[in-house]
Each structure stands twice: as C-alpha cells, then as structure tokens.
Structure prediction request, 249 residues.
Amino acid sequence: MKHFAWVLLVLVLVGVMAACAGAPSVPVPTSTPEVVDLHVTPAVAHWLPAVAACAEGIPGFGVYTQVLPRADLSDEQSDLVLRLGERLEGDPFVSVVGLEDIVLVAGQDVPVNALSLESLQAIYAGEFTTWAEVPEYSGDVDGSVQAITTLSYPVGHEIELLFRRAYLEDEPVGASSQTFSTIPFLTDLMDAHPYALGYLLASQVPEGMRVLPVTSEDEIASEQWVLAVTSSEPEGKLKQLLLCLQDQR
Prediction:
C-alpha cells in the first residue's frame, strides 16, 4: 500500500512539472519611457548639462535636444523651448527657470576700472577710438594712445540683440567691431587685443577674464530671464524637469 502511495505521489509531481514546463511564458510588461523634444537657442546651450542631470533623476523620462537659431524655434514642433528674453505675444505658456546677466568684459591692459553707460555707447558707436578719449581714463596708467578694439557676437545673434537692447538703446554695433561666436575664440581675441572690450553672459565668463562694471544713473536692463515655453501648462514629468532646473539655478 505504501509503495502504491509513493508511486502515485511521483506521478502527480511529474504531471505538475510537465504542466509547468509546457505552460507558455508570460512576458513582463515594460513601461515606455516618456521622451520630450527640447529646442534651445545657442545662447542657452550651456544649460544642457543641467537639463540632462535633471532628466536622469526622473524615472522613465528622457529628453531629445536640438540647438537651433532663435528664428527656427517653434513650440508647435517641440514640447519645450528654452530661450532668453521676454515673453512674446505668441507664446502659449511661459515659465521662468532662471536668470542670466549680460556683462562687459575687458582685455587685461584696458586702463580703466569701470565705464559709464554713455562712454560704452560712444565706444561701440565708434565715437571713441582710443582710451585717451574716454572720460574714465585718468592718465595714471599707460594705454592712452592705444586703440580700442570692440568685440561682438555676429549681427542677429540672440546675445547681440539683447546686448544692444540693454546697453546701446538698440543702436547697431559699429562696423569696425570684430566678431566672435564662441567663448574660446573670444578668449583668443582678448589675448591678441589686450585693450579690447567685449560682452558675455556672466555665467560663461572664463576664469581670469576681467569683468568691467558699467555705471548709469538709470537702471541697466542687463539681466535676462531664461524662459521655458510650452504649448500648455506643464504637468507630470515635464513639470518635474522645470522645477529641477529652477532649483539648480
């Protein structure tokens, strides 16, 4: 009788194992990550590492990025646009994620420690061509006869437009200005022209480069909002991304 019970138990176990072996495997469902299309202007391309760091901290989330000229930005072809400046009439929904400041930078031998707004405007208009003509030059240091070299982003560049609006009353930069489009090239120009003036976002000024204060009785609108433009009020993971960017800046 015991022998029969053991045989029966073995047969049952074999049947169970065969049933399990023959059962089709059930795939474990995997969630599809949410990916947003991000368009940024060259002026805020240095924000991309912060965007990547924030995205990595959000599970199941990714960002596909394109750097485009401001004229090519479209909230209809992207989920998110990052750019500098003010809200435009056609912007559907705008969030402020940070603040940038446009500052004046100077070559190492520039013989002044600050400029008035009026002097800066005269220099970029080509009215002052040597440092001896600049009212802030005291004559106590060398450099009076040195020519002033003005450096500028190309005409139409986002930062060039904002610099002119903030400092030059929207007047054009003088035709004699030498242009740069990258910070390494600006650094090379400063080394070659130690009496030169240029401008940059404060967050991108290389270590060791001089920042020259600009004084004025009126407020200078050098600070620029970093705007996140979306087609509607951000929700879910996109909202988490923008909140993270605000915290990092």
Observations:
- Residues 101-223 form a domain with the D-Maltodextrin-Binding Protein; domain 2 fold (CATH 3.40.190.10).
- Confidence is low (pLDDT under 50) at residues 1-23.
- Residues 2-22 form the longest helix (21 residues).
